[in-house]
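Hi team,

Below is the intake form for Disease resistance R13L4/SHOC-2-like LRR domain-containing protein from Escallonia rubra. Please confirm the fields before the structure is written into the shared record.

FORM ID: S-0412
PROTEIN: Disease resistance R13L4/SHOC-2-like LRR domain-containing protein
ORGANISM: Escallonia rubra
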Amino acid sequence: FSKWKAVGCNNETGHVVKLDLRSIRGLGGQISPSLLDLKSEPQQFPRDTNPSFLGSLEQLIYLNLSLASFAGMVPPHLANLSHLRHLDLSSSYDSWAADLYWLSGLSYLEYLSMDNGNISLATTHWLQAITMLPFLTELSLASCYLTNLPPSLLPSSNLTSLSVLDLSGNDFNSSIPQWFFNIRTLVDLELGSCSVKGLYPHVASGHFCGFRSLGLAGNDIRGEISEVVRGLAGCFGNSLEKLSLSSNRLSGQLPDSIGHFKKLRSIALDGNLITGPIPASIGELSNLEWLDLSSNKMNGSFVETLGTLGELNCLDLSQNNWEGYLWQNHLQGLAKLNTFRISSSLSSRNLTTIAIRHCDVGPKFPAWLESQTQLRMIFLTDLSISDTIPHWFWKLSFYLNTWVELSSNRLEGPIPLWPNVSYLSLANNLFSGSIPASIGHVMQTLQILDLSRNFSLHPLLLRKSKATIPTFSIKQPTYRKIHDKWGSFQDLDTIDVSMASNSLSGELSLSLKNCTKLYLLDLRVNRFTGNPPSWIGESLTSLSVLRLWGNLFKGNIPQTLYSTSWTLLKMIYQDQSLHAWAI
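The structure came back. Fields below:
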């Protein structure tokens, strides 16, 4: 048996000493009470109803039922496991507890997790039950439908060992009680998205010298960010590693004392009301890997000390009111940076995502992009760039399925072609000329091409999805022919070149027959001529929407269009020279 993956045996006696069935899929049915015959402690069980006989394993010290798909009431007989030190009942969405008074029998318990279980019936006494566990060091009751957060502890409460507390995802709808900050052994506190509100409590400086993580994101907490930092500071060699205060209403300026937290790895302050510049002391956080200051009211120029954060891999400064420029020396030391977002100017190597929107970066195309070799997504939208796309940008070796968004600038010149790009938007620029005939050959992974609202270029949308088709317009009408190189777009399901300002003319290209997966073909309000093509009904058998009215077609409607079995056919010819109308 000792060779079985889920079974552990004593090497001397051969007795089973461990059952770990969490990773064994497909087990079902009920657990046999014959487990009581084992001479030692089974550890973890899978699936079905919570077995009441577990309360008979009185010598058990470790019980882990997490991810085991148990359902039903947590058996109060667990109170008989007086030697238990570790109890994990988490991720049992169909489990519930009538009360938590049974915890009083587990006086040696050190670890308790009931995440995602329903203990709403215990919401009035859960804290009283917990505080009777003197050796408890880790408690996790995340998303347990709790609604009561007592403002104070009873005099008899005993939480002198508690170091980790997670109550996130509940619905307390109350202020943060002061007793959280009176537990001197606490190092990790997670209260994210649990409807706590009001002013951040006053905490004396130096009170949390051993604090490692503070998570209060997704609440409605008010106060000065400097007060939060001050309460966490004041200790030599501060141990704080994670500060998560996103989506609250914290205001004021980020203080210089933030640089005292030498061990910080993650700072998430996005979605608050923080003002002022980034303090220069940020550069002292040599272990920082994540910095998110987005969606605040921060302003001022960028500090060069940002460029000293050599471990940083994500930097989000978007949706603020930055001033001045972000030069290469600001970020040149960020060797590990792979995601950068800003609403103002930049440089760093090895970025995979760049999103810069709605700020003044122009008039020239950003030259620092030439050094990027790892790009997978690039968004340069509304940056006041008045330039042609440089040849070196055309030659960037993008990864497969890259997104390129360069809309709402004043870019001009011919349409660029990039291999491996699946989404390309050049909308609302000054591009001119024809769509290159080689587009299907060069951009074989292309799924969306948006060239709408350009100066003298007809709009065209090529896509594989069935999302809502946008309406396109251009500034000046031009008389052009639709190109005849459609053979490479066999997976295309939508072609929309409608609108009068396109003024496309000539006869439809026979190469459109190759687009056999077309779902929608909309050629309205152009200047197409000739007879309505019979091959539409013969070749485009997946077509559900066909719109041809407002052109210069003539003659009879082909019989092949009458005999189609389209589920949704809108075939509208409103040209005076046609011999029949069909809807």
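SUMMARY LINE: The radius of gyration is 32 Å.

Thanks, M.
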